[in-house]
Amino acid sequence: MNLLELISSYELYHNLIKRVITFLNYLKNNSNKFLNNEQLSIIDNIKKNLGEKIYSNEYNTFGNNYQKEIIVNFYKESLNEREKGLINLNNYFFRLKTLNEQFDLLCVYGHLILNAIMNKANQSYIELYYKTADFFINFVYNFSYIIKLDNNTNDNFNPNNFYLCDNNEIKLEHFDNINNPENLNFLCDKKFELDEQKNFLLNYSNIFSISSTLISYLMIYESSFDCQYISYLIIKRLYFIFPQFRDKIEDLLPIILTNLISFKEEQIKNKDISYKFFFKFLLEKGEKKLKEKLDIRIKLQNIEKNIIDEINKLNIDKYNINYENIFLNEFNLKIGCPLHLEINAGYSEEKIIEINNNNSVAFIMFNTVGMNITFRLYKFNPLINEVNDDKYFYEIFKEEKTEGSKIILFVKNPGIYKLVFDNTYSWINAKTVKYRISILKEIIDN
Questions:
Q1: Which among 204, 235, 216 is positioned nearest to 115, based on CA atoms?
Q2: Tens of pLDDT along 35-63?
Q3: Domain residue ranges in the chain
Q4: Which residue from 227, 254, 265, 311 could staple onto 221, CB 3.0 to 4.6 Å apart?
Q5: Could you count the other beta carbons within 10 Å of the beta carbon of residue 362?
Q6: What is the pTM for the complete model shown?
């Protein structure tokens, strides 16, 4: 491969762009007033011009393959064949290189895919419809969270979950005994918000239309708690993410919520009653037309008075209705489909993450497909000379030959970190790694 081909290769291009933008941000944030306004403006213009999209081969070939490998399965009578189409769809999105590519494809093909899946709708396909919603909900993610210690399930903490705290010291504080609640009290009951990925979602308003179409398909299965519940999760997120479109869902919302509160105790499959708080919130603080339609729906569906009385007793003043709880013992953020890396034998791949705010939480999750990988986490420090043969970066965490881990890293101050997936010890086997990375910043209430 000549130099021009190497530089134009997709992976190298994006790695270079990420490194350049990270360096420019660092330069700007640490200028200490040595840079004048003109120089700062030049940096902003360079960053803006670096934002041009370049798509991977997997993205560019999706249009040619989805018809014969995905859509065709959805038009078959067999449930197994239809589920195979959904599996193929997941696999295609998994092979895309960036979250940007995933969203772009979904916005182009989302309605076509839904219409194909829902053709000749049948009660026997409910499980398929639920799995479809479970796929789409990854693209209607919430971006406001409250961290809780545990969800009272008495589940043991996964030994592959690592809870780390960077207090700006050389040595990382590592909480081995997560079962001691005092270790992580500083994190609990605090509000956090997705950083970069929040603005990313807000730029894809087409997701609202696609998700509304999905809900309109699912809501007709009134006897399925799963379908109604996942419809509620999606529509609640739409309500808070895209407030400018609330009038578009004011007919769907009352139907879904009244369906949910009508289920008998023995029909309810989980202990989450947040939909009751959301119901009470809308009755008290919702838009005028929406409240009117809720009242009409309650009467039309003959909702029992004791159910409404129970909801009216709920105290929503201390309930953060637009936040979702995230529990430390099962910490997980599903933002799009997992991204993936192909790492050749004898090589390693790295990802740079930039944390711009004090008191942030970095969520890093990865697993391999069938084999192991060595994972290393480094921190940037320009005052350090050469450490671990990598100038300016020093290693703060390492896990040898693992099949997957989840790292929750609390960061006191802004910083730059490098993730390395190391396959240099393998002379024969290439490795496939699925991964997710998200940054949460703390919200301080005024």
A1: 216
A2: 676 666 666 666 555 555 567 778 888 87
A3: 1-54, 121-141+198-326, 156-184+339-446
A4: 227
A5: 22
A6: 0.82
